[in-house]
Amino acid sequence: MSTYMLILRGTDESNAALMASIGEAMAATRTFIEEMVTAGVLLAAEGLDDPARGVVVDFGGAAPVVTDGPYGETKELFGGYFLLDVASQEEAVEWARRFPAVRGSKIEVRRVAGTDEVPGDGLS
Amino acid sequence: MGTADVEAVWRIESARIVAALTRFTGDFGLAEDAAQEAVAEALVSWRRSSPANPAGWLMATARRRAIDAIRRRSALRERYALLAADAAVDPVAGSLVDEDIDTDRIDDDVLALMFVSCHPVLSPEARVALTLRVVGGLSSEEIARAFLVPVPTVQARITRAKKTIAAARVPFELPPAAERRERLGGVLSVLYVIFTEGSTATSGDRLLRPDVAYEAIRLARTLAALAPDEPEAHGLLALCELTAARFPARTGPDGAPVLLEDQDRQRWDLSAIRRGLAALARASTRGLGPYGLQAAIAATHAAAPSVEATDWDRIVGLYEALGRVAPSPVVDLNRAVAVAMASGPARALAIVDELIAANRLPGSHLVPTVRGELLARLGRRPEARAELELAARLCANQRERSVLLRKAATLG
Predict the structure, then answer these.
(1) pTM
(2) Cβ-count burial of A41 within 10 angstroms (0-12 exposed, 13-18 middle, 19+ buried)?
(3) Complex-level ipTM beyond the 0.90 threshold
(4) For residue B252, what pLDDT band results from cuts at 50, 70 and 90?
(5) Is some CB atom of chain B closer than 8 A to the CB atom of A1?
């Protein structure tokens, strides 16, 4: 048993396509969420607001620099996440495959490290 | 696709496939067999090429195997009817596709599946095995590993369970309103048995088997989602989440148990505590039942920064309430422990001695464990030592036994 985060990564194009049919997308996402709830795997889910309203705090220099979005060379934008309690990475991936995604977007599947382990220090 | 990928799809789909096929065929055993055949086929066929829609593939294959089985079993006349219908439009495919779309119906069917798997005609062991198999999607091997029993034993339990359900003509439906609460209690107790096996491994050399506990939590989440108006479904979920929140602190690096008083509370899982408290809030709408009360006790521990700073009076009150709705000697014993913390060991010892006088927990290592602790706190060291040594002799978990013997040794 492990916790995985499905990180939704859209592009400007896929986000525009998503907004064009947002009503259907919301309904499909709700159905997807209900399925995960019924399967007993969903721990949390959030969607992020428009990246244009976000800012970036950049630690590249001596002092942090705050810049407005959008984010220059960033092609893919973190748009939201699902947190799943599943038996295996394969199961997390299988849920990701089922997400009613817009063409061009991606989902990154990442295991959540336990409180007493160093990230990347092997799977348990 | 590899074995792990097939298993992943199977875990997600098994309950819905078995539920839909049982609804269609009216034969739970046949549905389960057909679903097993489908997953066995997937293990072979997906290695060569993965289907575009693995879930649909499993459902379609299981459906075909169910049709094959019906054809083999049916009388000749029935077989003609089925084949004739099949030539026009496959009635099986039609009905299943419709049900696939109707998610409410599928949800009710999965809930009905839980009621069948936990049916009172089955032995407790069969209920556990069947629930893990058909609702949880575990293989016989996984169930055997979880409960430390041989694989053939699990297979025999499942086979016998299917025969028992068929012989008793258990209908595939949600229990009628009059029976529903009681039957739900049966489902809850099966999930709780699975959870306690994982959280206090009754035998073996490990104290915790978190994977087993996790299966129970997952099933409890499913039940709470399918029966959202049942407070005790949320109560059980809250109890499981809040208990599991302590798992990271319950064993040391060498796997030895760490007692509540010595646990590093920083290691308790805050997200699990938050989920547990949310479930407890949903369980509290109409007064707490037995699981809700146990969850409230766990929540009181979760809210305390240390053993000393715990609201022990509240815990004593909750155990008293629990003793009223679900009387049990184990509850009395736990109440004694809480009383010791709230008002000292002498009053607690009186409760334990009453239990012993009534011989209400014969052979349990818990009674001498608690009595030994209380005697030690009262400074009656030789008696305390004898009690702890008796507890060690009665305890089946090797990890717990060594803790008891260590403690007895310190009493010199």
Answers:
(1) 0.86
(2) buried
(3) no
(4) confident
(5) yes
